[in-house]
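Working notes for the structural subgroup meeting. M.R. asked for a predicted model of this chain before we commit to crystallization trials. I am recording the input and output together here so anyone reviewing the notebook later can reproduce the run.

Input as submitted:
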Amino acid sequence: MWATLYLSADGAKGSGWLSDSWTEFSASGMDALPPHLYWLSKEDDKLYEAQVQIPMAGRTSITIGQEATETEPGRALFIRSMIRMWEDEYAASEGVDISQ
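Returned structure, recorded in token form:
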């Protein structure tokens, strides 16, 4: 998993994490999770579908779609847990508050 924090200028509306998560191996093969890109909103703590458009020329853009209601429960829990841990580590090391 990787995630990047985006904060709005005032630290409120529009802030969140762009995150991609997957599993590299599953003994059964049935439980393996393919990569999937999400937006975790700091405003409402919901996962949303996300898509990155990288054109041949011009600017890259990120589109945030509908709420991701079909996300695997284990994946959603893992994303939220890792991001909370990273936020706590950052706050402790930098002495800043990035919570809502």
